Amino acid sequence: MIPPGTDDERPIGRDARRDAFVAAAREAFFSKGYGATSMSSISATVGGSKTTLWTYFPSKQELFAAVVDDLVERYGRALEVEFDPTADIAESLRTMGRALLATVHARPIVDLHRLCIGEAGRFPELARLFHERAPARGKARLRAYIAELMARGRLRAGDPADASLTFVGRLWAGSIQSHLVGLIGPPDAAEIEREIDAAVDVFLRAWAA
């Protein structure tokens, strides 16, 4: 069993120390890559002993998961959208689209996607951890909303997963892909609205009852 760190290693509280480790790990992962970042280097950045870091995070993978959780908490707007199956479908999708694009185009989320893609060959578990904590949750909520609309006869019957891809896939095929690979920067508000309107139009043409 790893003994806990001592309080005199650094004059900060337990929660602040944990936050400092997560912040240092995020900076290191994004600037150096996951594989090139060691637990020792993160401990040295924050200060204190490696024992303290291992007490909070027994593995680098668990530390990465904490980085993802922190980013999802800060930027996961798309996971907070409330769907009302009685409200206007187009406006509900526009609200979802704005939240999704605001989230994915945020610089830390762009960096996280790039990290997972860049390390996929050696560390495929990173993408799985990220997907389970954010994209999978958002997709499930959108599928449930679409399934309810289909059950109410407001959309034609079909596979909610296919229907959700009609909308989300159109958004991803736009500025998101170009931004992630560095071809463009984040789009302006007008471009975001154009992309959302196009995605809503494609979705309703395909699935309106």
TrEMBL record:
<dbReference type="InterPro" id="IPR036271">
    <property type="entry name" value="Tet_transcr_reg_TetR-rel_C_sf"/>
</dbReference>
<dbReference type="InterPro" id="IPR001647">
    <property type="entry name" value="HTH_TetR"/>
</dbReference>
<protein>
    <submittedName>
        <fullName>TetR family transcriptional regulator</fullName>
    </submittedName>
</protein>
<keyword id="KW-0804">Transcription</keyword>
<dbReference type="Pfam" id="PF14246">
    <property type="entry name" value="TetR_C_7"/>
</dbReference>
<dbReference type="GO" id="GO:0003700">
    <property type="term" value="F:DNA-binding transcription factor activity"/>
</dbReference>
<feature type="DNA-binding region" description="H-T-H motif">
    <location>
        <begin position="38"/>
        <end position="57"/>
    </location>
</feature>
<dbReference type="InterPro" id="IPR009057">
    <property type="entry name" value="Homeodomain-like_sf"/>
</dbReference>
<dbReference type="GO" id="GO:0000976">
    <property type="term" value="F:transcription cis-regulatory region binding"/>
</dbReference>
<dbReference type="Pfam" id="PF00440">
    <property type="entry name" value="TetR_N"/>
</dbReference>
<keyword id="KW-0805">Transcription regulation</keyword>
<feature type="domain" description="HTH tetR-type">
    <location>
        <begin position="15"/>
        <end position="75"/>
    </location>
</feature>
<keyword id="KW-0238">DNA-binding</keyword>
<dbReference type="InterPro" id="IPR050109">
    <property type="entry name" value="HTH-type_TetR-like_transc_reg"/>
</dbReference>
<dbReference type="InterPro" id="IPR039536">
    <property type="entry name" value="TetR_C_Proteobacteria"/>
</dbReference>
